[in-house]
Amino acid sequence: MNPIPETDPEMPWTRSDVRELVRRLVAPLEAHASPGGARVRPGETGASFPDRDAELEGFARPLWGLAPLAAGGGEFEHWDRYREGLRHGTDPTHSEYWEPISDYSQAVVELAPIGVALALAPDKLWEPLSADDRDRITDWIRGVEDVEIPDSNWRWFRVLALAGLRSVGVEVKWSVAQTDLDRLESFGRADGWYVDGPDGACDYYAAWELHTDALLYATLAGERGVVDAPNEDRLAGFSDRADRFAEDFRHWFADDGSALPYGRSLTYRFAQAAFWGGLAVAGRNPLPWAEIRELWERTLRWWLDQPIFTDGGVLSLGYRYPTLKTTETYNSPSSPYWAMKAFLPLALPESHPFWRAEPDLSPADKKESVLGRDLDHERTMETPAMVVTRSAGEVTALVAGTDTHYSHKYDKFAYSTAFGFGVGSDLRGVASAGIDGTLGLGEDGEHLRVRGNVEGWLEDGLPRSRWEPWPDVSVESWLVPATPWHVRVHRLETDRPLHSVEGGFPVARPGEADAGRREEEAAAVVRYPAGHSVIRDLSGDREGEVIDQDPNTNVLHPRTAVPVLRGRHESGTSWLVTAVLGATELEDSVRDRPPVLIDDGLQIKSADGKVLFERE
């Protein structure tokens, strides 16, 4: 079944169109439901947690879309299966029992959509049940009150689960939720961002989890009264922080609706739009309603135009296309249905300004400004330590880096809506190293340690970082925007001779991979129909090369080629200065005019003479 509503592509969806979209998205899952309805298994791949938790995911995550559908009066013919599934999954005597909630259990994550469904759709999921059924469900959910959970966005899962029970009149240990709320507030930063825990990164979890859940909680606490005498200062803080965050987050979206591929859990796909829906549900419009609606709908439309479904209509694992190589160990076959969180606005009446707004959905290349408004050419974002640039409607983030375990997803120098990024697939060889957008060092030029576990920060508005791949080797890097180019400055200090490989942007390559690529002294170029990627050495004697990366390792394209620079460095201090360009459409005059290095004082100037960077 085609999930895309049959409408004029330049006319906004109606609320009825989106209702039908939700029904079409979840319909293929019914064929994969267990006889008792409690477990859904749409695929055979495994995750790091038990199959029963993966199958609970398949039951619970569609509720992110179905609950607001019901709250807004939309019809859905399978509520009886969800009621039966909730009964059986919480019944210790049933073969489909989900088992008690334990410390750090994946089941905690799935409590959030169940709690929200109880709050938004009690007439579908709670009221038709017997008193005994309700007692068993209550006992099972309340198991979350006394377990240990990660000190991160997971705290929202417990809060929403307990809020859901309170919404149907059940007594809970609300003091546990209050402790979680206090802790969640501490993750907030002055610029509106959240960090995902005391040592967490800044990524989409700030948008689709920490902010969206805060906005949803504020709505439940205010309009639906699930909290007695809610903390008004807390609710105001959630809303004000979201308003500030919106001014940054809007810059992560390209003109065509695609969003910046960055960080982990990208298989949740159009959950990227959940924040805009969360603003609507909470009645917040820090941007004009037409722009909020456009960001939301244009993103959904982009996603639904990509090959993200299996032959049976189930959301696949991967990002823009199916591939397991870019997923995480906690991704099960049902994990992508976190994307249903994008449909929170269905809980709103048709008269709400979100639905009455008139977004401009004309093709991006026909628009006079970005998403109907003028956006900054460059936007510095303090908490995530990045500079986001925009050129020809495409978005690139220059990133200082983080100290995480997902180096390819957080620690490359640049991430792009047009080119995506690649992950490593093996320990040997440049083609397997995920070298695009990053720097790799090794003693033989093939066994590489790529940039990771980075200490990153902003200095004078520029991303700066320090990386120590070995105890006797350190690399300090500065990133300098020169849109559509950017410049990377590295100070390499080593007590041993090393080989280096530095990569530019990866480009989707056609079947015939030899044409459209050029290797030369101090530069490499890839020029395919999908885009242009150039890397130039401005400071030394590195050699250009083009590498065909391992297939299915890029989040956007199954096959990619990347231009790289190879060098060899003796012990001591070396300065590497690299100019990098990536664009889908570009005049030759721009491609051939990179920023230039003036050796005196390590000064970098743009082609028109503007000083971009200077360090003594």
Automatic annotation (TrEMBL):
Q: Where is this region: Disordered?
A: 32-51
Q: How is this protein named in the record?
A: DUF2264 domain-containing protein
Q: Which Pfam families match?
A: DUF2264, DUF2264_C
The chain positions of domain DUF2264 read 14-359, 379-586
- InterPro entries documented for this protein: DUF2264_C, DUF2264_N, UCP014753
Domain of life where this protein originates? Archaea
What's the source species for this entry? Answer: Saliphagus infecundisoli
